[in-house]
Design brief:
The complex is a heterodimer of chains A (392) and B (182). Chain A has 392 residues and is an all-alpha fold. Chain A has helices at 2-11, 15-42, 50-68, 76-92, 95-98, 105-148, 153-156, 158-183, 200-222, 232-260, 268-273, 290-300, 303-308, 318-332, 356-391. The radius of gyration of chain A is 41 Å and the shape is rod-shaped. Chain B is an all-alpha fold and 182 residues long. Helix content of chain B is 79%, strand content 0%. Chain B contains 7 helices and no strands. The chains are: A mainly alpha (392), B mainly alpha (182). The interface between A and B is large, with 74 and 68 residues.
């Protein structure tokens, strides 16, 4: 077909005008269309989308002119091909681009996602056309240089002059607009590495993925036993297990509370009143033998529970502390005289514990007391109390 | 990151308060009723410590207030009427995006070798399955997208941990109280 075109160009005199116009049209199309595409991909504001419309209009004009000329054409086949392609291109200049876009970011994202397949399709189409265009254009350039002698004469032809000016200004506008678009501060501060896609959709997708992986890292720190696992599926497994176990613990604890309090009167006030108990001052010094600590720890804290205490802070706030104090008060209500004669010596507070040991084991006590008291210590305490009564 | 101790304090206060309200409504309850009441009030208290800032707390409150029996308690614990959720729009929105993404993936998969396609397909399926499970675990999780799901899970796990610790302490304390009432 190129061949045909060339020969036809050689044959017909008035063909040159047509050729020139078409060549210019193609040039315009290439520039206008691609800058428009750039604008679409790089922009997020509304004004840039006027530009594609402009270029589309210009294309339409040119096509209309091209249509007006078929009488002077000797080669209807060439003309037909060209016309159809140009028309299809003008149509392929997507109406979606011209339509006003909302500025809301979320909707923007969505719409860009929705339009992506269209764009891809268009882009493919354009590249296809583009290769053809280039070939044809080469031919046309040859044509022009042959006939007019210099390519600059193209700009001097009377009827085309105004349009070319308009075209160049248009393309300049486009490029300016795209420059402005580039200068505008982006909301997404992501830089594509080599070989990565740079269109807005994959950038947004990458941002989303990075966000997720960052949060997952935090979760990894929070969820015990999750540090060694790589891979999202395994991590999710761990997280699911942990959440489930916590939920079950809540169930279990509420059941236990219900069983313990037959009238549902959690006498928290009573517990708080115990704060004034004289021994409360001794609170952090409640001693347990290291043996018991260890055994209790091992015995009562299943790995899960143990790690669930990992994040326990040593700073204690009033009501929370109140609870602990009441525990301590109960513990230390057993008189010290009994300490040395019974087998509970190790369990109960002693002044010897004020030393370094206490500091070392303080955290452990805090952790252990919650779990290991009920069965071990409290029964022991009851026994101790009975003994005490008998002695008295 | 919020201070865990202030959270615990707040939770305990609200919980006890809610329980007292509950007790004043009903006198003689069975064990299961009591358990339910305790659980509900604990959950509500936990949600109200994160009131209106996270989605899981909103969903928890909304679920609790669905049951007419619990409505009074909910209002008592929160001190105000529970917020109305608008989930339907959210859901359709995320669904549409997902379907678009799928079609895109299909487009892209043409250029990748077949083995890798299969492997990544399996991996994606695994992750999707687990994500769905996690969504079912989280209150209101069905309506979250991936990013917010991970965020909410973070927050929820923290709150659950605080709740468990406080409850455990209370259980211990009340057991001790019963064992030697002095």
């Amino acid at each position: 077909m190129l061949h045909c075109e060339n020969t036809s160009g050689n044959l017909a005199g008035d063909m040159t005008v047509w050729e020139r116009q078409r060549a210019r049209m193609k040039w315009q199309e290439e520039h206008g269309y691609f800058s428009a595409f750039d604008a679409v991909f790089s922009s997020s504001s509304q004004d840039s989308f006027v530009l594609p419309a402009d270029s589309g209009c210009a294309l339409g004009e040119v096509v209309a002119q091209a249509r007006a000329r078929p009488g002077s054409m000797n080669k209807p086949s060439v003309h037909g091909f060209d016309e159809s392609s140009s028309i299809s291109r003008t149509f392929s200049c997507p109406p979606a681009l011209v339509e006003p876009r909302p500025t809301g970011s979320s909707i923007e994202k969505e719409s860009s996602k929705k339009r992506k397949p269209e764009k891809l399709h268009n882009a493919k189409f354009v590249t296809e056309n583009d290769t053809k265009d280039k070939r044809i254009k080469l031919g046309a350039d040859d044509e022009q240089s042959k006939i007019t002698g210099s390519p600059n004469s193209n700009a001097n032809t009377d009827s085309n002059k105004r349009e070319t000016c308009a075209d160049t200004s248009n393309s300049k506008q486009n490029s300016k607009a795209s420059e402005i678009q580039n200068q505008k501060p982006d909301y997404i501060h992501v830089r594509a590495r080599r070989g990565q896609a740079t269109d807005s959709h994959s950038l947004a997708e990458r941002v989303r993925r990075e966000k997720i992986s960052e949060r997952m890292k935090y979760l990894q720190d929070l969820v015990p036993g999750c540090n060694k696992i790589t891979g999202k599926a395994g991590m999710l497994d761990e997280i699911i297990n942990y959440v489930q176990s916590l939920q079950r613990q809540v169930e279990f604890l509420s059941m236990k509370l219900a069983a313990v309090n037959p009238r549902l009167d959690l006498s928290i006030d009573d517990l708080f009143e115990k704060e004034v108990f004289p021994c409360a001052a001794n609170f952090p010094n409640i001693g347990m033998s290291s043996d018991l600590t260890n055994s209790g720890y091992v015995q009562f804290n299943s790995p899960q529970e143990m790690v669930s205490y990992g994040g326990l802070d040593t700073v204690i706030n009033p009501p929370y502390m109140g609870l602990k104090r009441t525990i301590s008060a109960h513990l230390s209500s057993v008189p010290e005289t009994y300490l040395h004669s019974s087998s509970f010596t190790q369990l109960l507070p002693s002044s010897a514990w004020e030393g370094d040991f206490q500091n070392v084991f303080n955290l452990d006590f805090d952790q252990v007391r919650a779990t290991s008291f009920p069965s071990h210590l409290s029964s022991g305490l009851v026994e101790a109390g009975n003994h005490l009564k008998m002695e008295m | 990151m919020r201070n865990i101790n202030t959270v615990k304090q707040e939770f305990l206060k609200k919980w006890i308060w809610g329980l007292r309200k509950y007790r004043s409504q009903k006198k003689n309850m069975s064990l299961l009723e009591r358990k339910k009441a305790i659980k509900l009030s604990a959950d509500l208290a936990m949600a109200s410590t994160r009131n209106k800032t996270t989605r899981w707390s909103k969903a928890l409150i909304a679920n609790a207030s669905k049951n007419s029996n619990n409505k009074v308690l909910t209002e008592h614990v929160l001190g105000s009427s529970p917020p109305v959720r608008k989930s339907s729009t959210n859901y359709s929105h995320s669904r549409r995006i997902r379907s678009c993404r799928k079609s895109l993936r299909r487009n892209r998969a043409v250029h990748i070798p077949k083995d890798r396609v299969v492997a990544s397909f399996i991996a994606r399926k695994l992750v999707q399955k687990r994500t769905r499970r996690l969504k079912s675990l989280l209150p209101g999780g069905e309506f979250m997208d991936d990013v917010s799901l991970v965020e909410e899970t973070l927050d929820y796990v923290q709150s659950l941990r605080a709740q468990v610790e406080v409850m455990r302490c209370l259980v211990t304390a009340s057991e001790l109280m019963i064992l030697n009432p002095s």
